[in-house]
Amino acid sequence: MDDFYKKILDNNKQWVETSLASDPNYFQDLAKGQTPPLLWIGCSDSRVPANEIVGAKPGEVFVHRNIANMVVHSDMNMLSVLDYAVNVLKVKHVLVCGHYGCGGVKAAMGNDSIGIIDNWIRHIKDVYRLHNSYLDSIEDETERFNTFVEISVKEQVFNLAKTSIVQSAWKNGQELTLHGWAYGLNSGFVTDLEVNISSNKDLDEVYQLKF
Length: 211
What we know:
Elements: H1 3-22, H2 26-30, E1 38-43, H3 50-54, E2 61-66, H4 76-87, E3 93-99, H5 103-108, H6 117-130, H7 132-136, H8 141-161, H9 164-171, E4 177-183, E5 190-192, H10 200-210
Pfam families: Pro_CA
Enzyme class: lyase
EC number: 4.2.1.1
């Protein structure tokens, strides 16, 4: 057994002991069920931990992660998570959180072939194509990269709003608000991208305002 693997097993034991020391019923209570108010759709990047960023405890955030926090209408994994979160857990908020310095977004800005991920990145390239005139007008490469990260998050929120799952929830009068954030790896702070949508009326108004 290598040192890293042994360390994570030991860490688990220590975490259990610490949790039980503060609350003897901690895990028994967790096992009874979950009622998280938030679904987090984030990037798979190991530096973007959903719970830690928002200071949430286990049971408070339902999480889906993929490369570059994409909302793709043919992604059954994402749709299954969304359906369960909205229709079973009855979350009140769905948050798409991207991050500055995202490798998937960066790769989509170039033409190098990486491997099978090229097929996934194609979706991100489509976002760039929709906004290429504006993005190409930004001369500073870092600023253009950061702007693309933000635009991609906004587009994912709009994609989310158009899913049959969210549309049905709104039609049935369910309280559900969509949000978009960009997380700063070098600061720890998030930027609210001000795409807070709780109805089709909001969707139309926000889209016209942002693009």
